[in-house]
Structure formats: C-alpha cells, structure tokens
Specification:
Elements: H1 12-32, H2 45-52, H3 54-57, H4 81-84, H5 91-99, H6 115-122, H7 126-142
Length: 146
C-alpha cells in the first residue's frame, strides 16, 4: 500500500498555497514581535505596553492607537490618570483594571482585554503575572503629565 501525500486536485493547490503563505506570514509576525521577558529576566513595562496596549491607547498613551477608531468608545488617555485622581497616580486602581478585578463602569461595556487573564495563559507562575502587571502600572505612572 502506497501512501500519497499531496493534493488530489489542481483546484486545491491555490487554496493550499494561500494557507501556507498566511501561516508563514503569521509566523514571521509572531517572531518579529517583542515577546514577554523570559522567566528570570526583568519585565520592561514599556515593552509590555508597546505589545499589549499601544494598539488602542497609542504609543504615547493618549488614546490614539491604530485600532482606536474601531472601538465603540475612544480609549482612555492614560497620561492624565493622576490628574483625574486629584494629582496622585491611582496605582491600585490601575493594577485592578489591568488584571480584571475592576471595571470602569461609566465607560460602558468593557472592550479592554483583561490582561491578567491573558498573562496567566502565557505562564503558570502567578508571581510572574504580577511582575508583568506591576511593570505596566509603573510604566503608566511614568507617562503621567501635569
């Protein structure tokens, strides 16, 4: 018995080629994206922000990312969190919003992903998840304007 690997019909070849090209492109993009720090390496909040937040909030954190116009509501300007909280950066609230324990009710339905859940899927190390969230919170604090 001879096993034959290949396409049975010339009509299937374009679809297979398109699928192969799509997979190659996806792999190339995934490899080009800066990844999360490996266990034991320090977590860089700026890199985490660029990877997970900037698409909606913009590289500067002001809410003008490339995906912002596709959302029902404009993403928050993350540079004025301290100003909106009476001058003190709301560290605990920021942490709770990122990890999913707090929802900003007046913003309407939550379109922002719950990054705590996403980070927990990346690693089973709860301490590492907390490091990533804390690094994001520290970075957000560094973005604050007067």
């Amino acid at each position: 018995m001879r096993l034959r690997f290949g396409l049975a019909s010339p009509l299937q070849r374009p679809a297979a080629l398109a699928l192969a090209l799509a997979l190659a492109l996806a792999l190339a993009l995934a490899l080009a994206m800066p990844g999360a720090a490996a266990a034991g390496e320090p977590v860089d909040g700026a890199s985490e922000f660029a990877r997970y937040c900037a698409v909606c909030h913009g590289a500067d954190g002001r809410g003008g990312g490339p995906y912002a116009d596709k959302l029902r509501r404009q993403p928050s300007d993350l540079t004025i969190l301290a100003r909106k909280s009476g001058g003190a950066f709301p560290e605990t609230l920021a942490h709770r919003v990122i990890d999913g324990r707090e929802m900003i009710v007046f913003h309407g339905p939550r379109e922002m992903p719950i990054w705590g859940d996403r980070f927990r899927k990346d690693t089973v190390d709860a301490a590492r998840v907390e490091e990533r969230i804390a690094a994001l919170v520290r970075y957000l604090e560094s973005l604050q304007v007067e």
